[in-house]
Design goal:
This protein is mainly alpha-helical. It has one domain: lambda repressor-like DNA-binding domains (434 Repressor (Amino-terminal Domain)), CATH 1.10.260.40. The protein contains five helices and no strands. Helix 2 crosses helix 3.
Length: 67
């Protein structure tokens, strides 16, 4: 699912630095969850999805479908 989240960020043309700013976090926060060094809880996942303009439920559905 994280791979889909990273791809959605890239598809939206959002850098890790920009996403961090949108979240009120540093770029390292984004890097750590994208590399799997830190897990996102559900609330954080939804917040990240909103920050990059992607539907959280749709992303989860794609992950379940193996896309």
């Amino acid at each position: 699912m994280i791979e889909l989240l990273v791809q959605a960020r890239k598809d939206a043309g959002v850098t890790q630095v920009e996403l961090g700013k949108r979240l009120g976090q540093r770029q390292t926060f984004v890097s750590k969850f994208e590399l799997g060094e830190r897990r996102l809880d559900v609330a954080e996942f939804v917040t990240v999805c909103h920050a990059i303009g992607v539907d959280a439920c749709g992303l989860i559905k794609r992950a379940e479908d193996g896309a």
